Amino acid sequence: MKDLAIFAADAGVEMLAGEELAAMCTGNFREDPSIDYGRYMRRVPHAVLRPRDRAALAGCMRFLFAAGIRFKTRGAGHSSGGQALLDDGVVIDLRHLSRVVSDDGDTITVEGGMWWLALVEHLHAQGRRPRSITANLRSCVAGTLSVGGFGDSSHLWGLQINHVERMTLITPDGAVHALGRDDELFRYSLAGRGLLGVIADVTLQTMRRPWTMMGRMMRWASLADFLRDHQIIVEHELYDFLRARLRFVNGRFEVVAHLGRTSANPVLEDPGGAALRPADATPPELIDLHRLLAAERPEDPMVACPAVEFVLPLPLPALWDDLAQHIAAAGIPALQPDGHSVMVVARDDRLPLAPLPAATSVMVALRPKLPAPDARALIPALRAIGRRALELGARMYLMSIEIEEPHFLERQFGEHLVRLRELKAAVDPRGLLNAGLL
Fold it and tell me: Does domain 100-209+420-427 sit in CATH 3.30.465.10?
């Protein structure tokens, strides 16, 4: 690491190694580079680099590429399967690449390490929103775009990757590429888990939308009942906010959802109309959507979260019945008492790696929380659920734990796998950047 230290000093890049790095390994995944949000595995890198701008990031990548050193990038560390962890190379921490580059009032260009929370705060002051808001604002922009980006408005406006206009991608050799929607590297980098390069900055669509919401809670006795009404919600654009959870009650799964419609002049009326048939619903009430989204979520550093998130093709009933039995038998619902996130999203065929197996698909997020030793014992059962989902035609959300299924890549990427591998071989023939998937 001597040559790396010399490079970092000459380039003015902060480098953490040795005792300084060891002192950071405290168990807080926001600061500890040896763990991630999953908090059940630990991998200690040889060093951490923290470039302060795009030029320094490109320089770090250029040096590591030339030296043949494996490296991974890390934003908010919000992966559950060790995707940002590395024990035989270097982690590039993007925390300083968190600035607004430009803002024309319609689109906004931000650096990839920016948290969605900071972006929302910037737009909130102007009465604007991202077109698709992630459910967890304490993740970084480049990170969610690298896996797709589900959110509480995806039922109407799709994944976050649908709303990217342009990006600056730095390939593993340090070359800087300005890309638009017609560029192949653009299309294969979105939801490509960082295989082809690092999203240094990105231009996102925004919309002028108030943050005051007329909302209510609804409950459906089954996922099938919820999906029936969900189709009505989408067809008539009844709600532009929808956060649904699968809850295991009395031996079966029901759906409870927080729904709302934003309006400049909200009134106390049912924004959904009489067409929906939930089992029950609360009266409508005024809600500050900004406060709801930005609320701090306490994180216990001693509690692990080995997530498995899969996306099933619709129509669904037989597939879900099969998986529901496996989930219940593994005891997952008791480890996630607030319920499992469920979202329905339509596919955009211009984005080949989007984790959506059908024209319309439903994502189910299993995020059990338990002590780390117990979490490691649960991994085989979670992997079995993931494998079963793949057998039923699902795709995985690539922040999940690794499934370790022989034909995983073929099931995940289908016909696009060949071209993805060709592009990876062209830009990173030694597989130095974000290794572990291909």
Answer: yes
User: What burial class does residue 103 get, using C-beta atoms within 10 Å of its C-beta: 0-12 exposed, 13-18 middle, 19+ buried?
Assistant: middle
What does the domain layout of the chain look like in residue ranges?
Answer: 2-93, 100-209+420-427, 212-294
Distances (CA, A) of 326 to 308, 330, 333, 383: 13, 6, 11, 11
CA angle 10/11/14 to nearest 5° reads 100
Quick one: which of 343, 346, 383 has its CA closest to 363?
Answer: 343
Cβ atoms 80, 36 nearer than 8 A: yes
Task: Let me know: does 50 contact 16? Beta carbons within 8 Å.
Answer: yes
Asked if 438 contacts 353 with a C-beta cutoff of 8 angstroms, the reply is no
| CATH architecture group of domain 2-93 | 2-Layer Sandwich (3.30)
Rounded (10°) CA dihedral 219, 222, 226, 228: -140
Planar angle of CA 282, 284, 290, nearest 5 degrees: 110
Nearest-angstrom CA–CA distance, 274 and 257:
17
Give the separation between CA 92 and CA 71, rounded to whole angstroms: 7
Are the C-beta atoms of residues 389 and 371 closer than 8 Å to each other? no
Q: Kindly report, residue by residue over 8-21, the tens digit of the pLDDT.
A: 999 999 999 999 99
Query: Stretch 123-135: mean pLDDT, rounded?
Result: 92
CATH of domain 212-294: 3.30.70
What is the per-residue pLDDT across 36-79, written as a single tens digit (0 to 9) for each?
A: 999 999 999 999 999 999 999 999 999 999 999 999 999 999 99
pTM: 0.95
Structure tokens at 82: 């060790």
